[in-house]
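With this grant's support, we have settled on a layout for protein records. An illustrative entry appears below exactly as we store it:
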Amino acid sequence: MDMEWMRLHLVKTCKLDASALTLVGVSGGADSLSLWGIMVEAGFQTAAVHVRHGLRPEAEAEAERVVDWGRKWGVRVMVEDADVRGTAASQHLSVEEAARKLRYQALFGQAQRLGAQAVAVGHTADDQVETVLMHLLRGAGMAGLRGMAARMTAHEWESELPLVRPLLGVWRAETEAWCQARGLEPVQDASNADTTYFRNRLRHELLPYLAEYNPQIKERLWRTAAVLAADYALVEERVQHAWEDCLIRAEPGWVRLRADGLRAAPLGVQRGIIRRAVGWLRPGLRDFDFSQVEQAVGLIQQDGETGGLELTGGLEMRLRYGEVQFIEPERRDVRRNYPQMEAGSEVVLSVPGEVPLGGGWILAAAAVEEVPQNLGGDPWEAWLDLEQVRLPLRVRTGRPGERFCPFGMGGHSQKLSDFWVNQRVPREARAGWPLVCSADEIAWIPGGRTAEFCRVSETTRRWVHLRLSRNPAEG
């Protein structure tokens, strides 16, 4: 193993600063032990975490060996215990999945506490090959067949702290040789030979069988992953541009996208945006498969303005009057998503003054004598001619058959029901939508327009400034 190449790789590809702390996950096997030792030899500041899964009798002795290596190298070692079997049972996970989840939670928890620049793990080229083959057998697109990345941010474990895998270009035989050359005896995990685990069956049964057809099968799969990783980066760049163009809003539990922008995107980009929206809500979701992506594409492309689809894990996808929405179950309450009042209710809005509408929404009013140069642009803000409205203002919901005369229609009125449709207000939000009224006449529909009779003109001398805002923490 070329140590100079590894040092440059750590800096250039993994983007690690040798003087900043990197937390290394160390099981004690040849891969993680060699990664840790390479970083120490190369002058990188490290700390190590060993997660004791408690699945084998020798777990205690293995932890002690990792601690001993830390003493020898002068590196801090933290040992964390994980209840793998209990977590697997309580969360309906396989033992493999539970161990992985608890391991990464421990690593990133410690990294945050120590202020580490990244978490480093010892996945090798062999692990990359097994991962690609696993994804191929389960069914995957480019995102799965590219394998693991040498550096990842915004992953399922942490939104900012990177996960790095410096050994993806190094074969397991090389890590074993590195340890042997330095007189190190890595931990031998007997469970790695247990073919009841899917990955082990790939390693010990399927890959040797495929090697009978192509002795270079591992190298070929590794190269395929490298080629697809570069292609995937290009696709993701296109998806990112389309995401920024289509995104209306993304917040915890809710993503809203422009339907027309999605429909105009190429099919591959549509799929990428759909996966990104689901991934934004559920970073660790693994069973969002091809069939669900295609159902989501079908909903986007269907005729009509409304529709819905139940996705995995209780997520819901909605098509609503020009929007494609992805919603967590707890966010389906319309009061959390839109400004709402009890249907048929009415409250007084003094000027100045404010009224809470629930769900964190607050409607505020103020009388002003100076206004900005450019009015408008924010649909949740309005400016009215104070001399044309009757105070106090009233805030209520719509009435059957009610009409509204919006500014810009030359004094013509329209049914409020038609206005809702034209403004693409979701059907379930209309009955409770707040209307700001002067006496009994609608002066402003928040999120929409002001009325013709109270519009601001060149002769306006005093203004009413209205603003509807929301505190997400209260929603």
